[in-house]
Amino acid sequence: xxxxxxxxxxxxxxxxxxxxxxxxxxxxxxxxxxxxxxxxxxxxxxxxxxxxxxxxxxxxxxxxxxxxxxxxxxxxxxxxxxxxxxxxxxxxxxxxxxxxxxxxxxxxxxxxxxxxxxxxxxxxxxxxxxxxxxxxxxxxxxxxxxxxxxxxxxxxxxxxxxxxxxxxxxxxxxxxxxxxxxxxxxxxxxxxxxxxxxxxxxxxxxxxxxxxxxxxxxxxxxxxxxxxxxxxxxxx
Amino acid sequence: xxxxxxxxxxxxxxxxxxxxxxxxxxxxxxxxxxxxxxxxxxxxxxxxxxxxxxxxxxxxxxxxxxxxxxxxxxxxxxxxxxxxxxxxxxxxxxxxxxxxxxxxxxxxxxxxxxxxxxxxxxxxxxxxxxxxxxxxxxxxxxxxxxxxxxxxxxxxxxxxxxxxxxxxxxxxxxxxxxxxxxxxxxxxxxxxxxxxxxxxxxxxxxxxxxxxxxxxxxxxxxxxxxxxxxxxxxxxxxxxxxxxxxxxxxxxxxxxxxxxxxxxxxxxxxxxxxxxxxxxxxxxxxxxxxxxxxxxxxxxxxxxxxxxxxxxxxxxxxxxxxxxxxxxxxxxxxxxxxxxxxxxxxxxxxxxxxxxxxxxxxxxxxxxxxxxxxxxxxxxxxxxxxxxxxxxxxxxxxxxxxxxxxxxxxxxxxxxxxxxxxxxxxxxxxxxxxxxxxxxxxxxxxxxxxxxxxxxxxxxxxxxxxxxxxxxxxxxxxxxxxxxxxxxxxxxxxxxxxxxxxxxxxxxxxxxxxxxxxxxxxxxxxxxxxxxxxxxxxxxxxxxxxxxxxxxxxxxxxxxxxxxxxxxxxxxxxxxxxxxxxxxxxxxxxxxxxxxxxxxxxxxxxxxxxxxxxxxxxxxxxxxxxxxxxxxxxxxxxxxxxxxxxxxxx
Amino acid sequence: xxxxxxxxxxxxxxxxxxxxxxxxxxxxxxxxxxxxxxxxxxxxxxxxxxxxxxxxxxxxxxxxxxxxxxxxxxxxxxxxxxxxxxxxxxxxxxxxxxxxxxxxxxxxxxxxxxxxxxxxxxxxxxxxxxxxxxxxxxxxxxxxxxxxxxxxxxxxxxxxxxxxxxxxxxxxxxxxxxxxxxxxxxxxxxxxxxxxxxxxxxxxxxxxxxxxxxxxxxxxxxxxxxxxxxxxxxxxxxxxxxxxxxxxx
Lengths: 236, 650, 249
What we know:
CATH superfamily of the domain at 281-412 in chain B: Succinate dehydrogenase/fumarate reductase flavoprotein, catalytic domain
Number of strands of chain A: 0
Number of domains of chain A: 1
Largest sheet of chain A: none
Oligomer: heterotrimer
Strand content of chain A: under 5%
CATH architecture of chain A: Up-down Bundle
Shape of chain A: elongated
Largest interface: B-C, 82 and 78 residues
Strand order of the largest sheet of chain B: 1-20-19-11-17
Strand content of chain B: 5-15%
Radius of gyration of chain B: 24 Å
Distance between the termini of chain A: 73 Å
Largest sheet of chain B: 5 strands, antiparallel
Order of helices and strands of chain A: HHHHHHHHH
Number of helices of chain A: 9
Number of helices of chain B: 16
Structural class of chain A: mainly alpha
CATH topology of the domain at 281-412 in chain B: Flavocytochrome C3, Chain A, domain 1
């Protein structure tokens, strides 16, 4: 019986255990992506509403740090275990095929690591930009008429910079690309899939991914085309 | 009582004691179970047994013996025990459960099997088979075999092979696969527990006797080529049948006779070798490249109609042949049973019309199995529901759509009722050598009924051998022998010499070309119907093939590596010698019975005519040397519970 | 028809191996793929070249022995078909065909196209069974099984253990194979008793055999000759999670 006990490895070293962690953290991150998008879309409600939302978030105080901590942990675990699995998976076939064809695997599913890494790089840049103001500080120091940090103007001014909005759109495309496989994949890994759910989840995943893309990208496009207007007195 | 013996033509007199227990038929097995000696559970670990083959019989025996506590080694040539050819059985497994309340009973299954076997099997063995058939189903269900169910959750049955009761259990068209996986999983559990040591990709090449008892085998590791010896207190052969003597058969390409033939050459008797079964519904040969034949379930004959053109040489497309020019041959000859006539009868009818030049398809070796009437009567949808997977398989292989074109079918060798002679305890005439499943001759007489092969393999392995082998151990107390014994060294040397011989000939012909030639000869002269002249012709030709084989064979590579040609060469060498034995048996049995049809012995209507006065016995052959006629030992068959009668399917 | 074959030749497990080019001339479209290789082999022997070693046995699509990757797809271009059931009419005159062994670290090549798939046996040995001995079982009808459960169990149980799922997977993952057995037994009342122990042991052994893990791309299902559904992988994940979290009943 001793060898049987040894067979049962810990969650963190078993393949399915690691996959489950990636999936659970994937659920958290997907939730954040959707929530963050809904929050951002308030930019269309105008400067006051949007800055109110921003200052509400800032005013959460310790809770905000708890949430940020959890998100950070989720990102770290998601990336750490994905890379660990990817390295193991690469080792599982040391000699490649001379000719290899795919029948089913989508291009998105085969490029999850690349899309994931680029999205991660974007997140770092994005936080440095909008949260910390370390890059593009020229857009960071506006104050709105109520004396609050003018996030609204920062967003519009930033997105009128073609380099910034270009990077943003490309990154959002990759995020959607990542989600288009990731979303239905979460359900499969968590064991919440069957013959009837499978086509539904597939369609839902694609819809969600491109809804996220449309939602996020609508902001730079609106800023660029002038649908989102700068408040009076704010000069580019 | 029965099981007495008689020896004729040459060879030393030998007692052929079938060891059938005394008492009424229904009590024999119960009484025998009580009378057999038991091994002390604490001592079971000390008894080693070797099982060669991991199909239904081998895997079930290995698992069960290991569960009982014996020390088991199991060998198979496949890369995994799960791949043995039992896996290909489609139809189902019979059991006298009477779940359908349609009047089935142990006695009825026994009766049908004896009659179906054309009265050439042992009553006591067959009755025991019917008795344990129900336990097999229980065992397999408990293992998780997903047999077909009713909505209420109970097991469902179908009727099969012309039986008048519904007693066949099935798992879609993959019953053999599911039963084998059940036995394989039980075997895996014992491997994990350390009670069975498994040797896949390992082929038995010699049986080793010490002091007249079977004490071990010599094997070749098919990956490294290493020759090694394994000693045991008993040897069990579960290596299946020898249909591949015909080259083209429904068997797997690796199926071979080597294990049982090596035992035969060491003195084990080979019983009824000429009892071979030809299955009527196989996909016809498409060309010289053909490597095997594919069986289509017999159930197709429930709705398909068999026909050929009335005129010889009519090469019109089937749809272009009007009704008036068609001959529905089985319906015409057997109006009662029609297209459902038994396997041997349907097969011969197909051969006959092809011999008359009325065969269809490019080779002229085929008859139509036409579903157009069924499609118009039942709708294509219903036909698809019933036979969809079979139609799909047919289309895959032939490239023709059987919903539009009638299928073409032709008979093919499928099962061998003959095999090593065993007594009631499944032991051959060599003490310690046991033979189970298709490899022995015991239960099917001259013809096997559909869905009975799986039943017999599992009965032997799960419920008979585990008892009788214990009795052998307890009553003989085998002396200590290990693989360092001189007999093993000698056998290993012989095996090496033989392998080197194959490699050193360096002639001009490949193994396959010899096998193909042998198969063609056997099919033509000793196939569905046999005559004195055809058998004599074969017996003249086979020694010539054998002589050329050993002179003109070409096998490349070496013996100490993975060498598939070398493996095949050894198997074909044994097939060539076996072919001679089959023809000798067929020549001596001048009656027709079951799968053995002698044209000289038929009724006025052209039906098989048995000769119970002269041939109501098991013909067990003893090897006398290559090229020398074997000597015949007879085990007389007595029928006390079923009356000898001519089969009639008109 | 005439074809050009590029076949992986490798003397033994230690050899590094290479693709060799062989012509295959006058091939009959009615041949199966393996019969085509038989014909090529007969020709090679006549030229004193050792024949191409490949595994095959039943040649009717059920034993799971035959295994090769044809033009980048395990078992070749026809769906739901083993190599032995693939016929040459699926190819065109003049085609170039690349034939490679199933590739995975867990399936080392033994010679040419023959690989060692005993890792699958060891996974079954780790728990792919119902722990009962022969005898002492109830009557077959004493355990009613809902027809739906039996049908679904059968869908999983028809796996032939060929390893195409591993060969097709980008990660050489064995999860379709393992999940088919886990699901077959978990779906039936007979097998449900030890379902937790079984899934943990089998997954543990699967990992120890250095297969990769599933990234939900479903190539396995697309090449499976029995078209076994990836829904069983979801079921195995669920079984695993339950086996981890819930106490053994």
